[in-house]
Amino acid sequence: MSFESLMGVTQRLTASMEALAALGAELRLRRDGASAHPQTRQLLQEIVRGIDPDLLNDITADQEAIALAVIRVAFHEAIDLLDDPARAPGWLHEDPAVLQTIGKRSRRVVHQINAFAAMRPGLKKAIERNGAFLDIGTGVGWLAIEAARTWPMMKVVGIDIWEPSLALAASNVAASDLQDRVALRRQSVVDLEDREAFTVVFCPAPFLPREVAEVAMANAFKALVPGGWVVFGLFPPPPDALGEALTALKIVRCGGHPWTQSEAEERLRGCGFEEVETFAPASLSRLSFGRKPG
């Protein structure tokens, strides 16, 4: 390969990065209702139309906010990788803006669970009756808040060990008027001792080391009522070999294990779960479900 080839690839990838930034900038201007220089705004809109003329048609404000959150986190993680590629794997985010962005993005998991439940009567019944939802690794609490809002019969418990996130979670829950239905604990899933207390347990696999994720599955089984459901969240399926390597790198940098779908399903069955299957709508997260017998 020549230097010219290297620069050609660099310029091609740079164009993709700049296009993503332009999309994020347009979404932010739409979200904030802010004014920009007329020529800048015109060019941003031309770039978005160049990506896809119908890209933002029929997209709600909440969906725009989720897409913007994904873009912001992607750039933050890219800068972290570029600035410190030698750092040890692990969760190091402390910036409140980044933590809130990651948390808001997680709300979509609740709606994916709802979408899957529409096809599985047993799960639908579980989330619509009096019960309890456990959010492992709750972060800043947005997934827990969304669960309480979406499933009004559910009590919600969020556990985490990252103090910067839990402090923000407490503020978010207080501002949501859901304090009576959302409880937060500073607790590792490794130390979870609840028995037959929850109807549904969510486990964010990409953010947990393999050994912790395996304990989380086993403890989730014990914590679920008979007939309760575990939801094992994975990142979206990569489109190709490059995408697979990039996704694995992102997970490892966060301190997690890059589970394959078959790996996750096999492990859930090994813990005793039945009706194990994975739901992966479009480019959203993959969710592997399992039901505790009973």
Structural class, please?
Answer: alpha/beta
Mass-distribution shape: globular
CATH level-3 fold name of the largest domain: Rossmann fold
* Total of DSSP H or I helical runs spanning 4+ residues: 11
Q: Kindly state the number of beta strands.
A: 7
Could you describe the 3D structure shown?
- The structure is a single chain.
- This protein is α/β, with parallel strands linked by helices and 294 residues long.
- The chain has two domains: 3-87, no CATH class; 97-291, Rossmann fold (3-Layer(aba) Sandwich).
- It has helices at 3-32, 38-51, 61-83, 96-105, 108-117, 121-128, 142-150, 163-176, 210-223, 241-253, 261-270, and strands at 131-136, 154-160, 182-186, 198-204, 224-234, 274-279, 286-291.
- A seven-stranded mixed beta sheet has the order 3-2-1-4-5-7-6, with helices on both faces.
- Helix 1 crosses helix 2 (38-51).
- The longest helix has 30 residues, at 3-32.
Quick structural summary:
The protein is 53% helix and 16% strand.
Attribute tags:
294 residues, alpha/beta, Rossmann fold, seven-stranded mixed β-sheet, 11 helices, globular
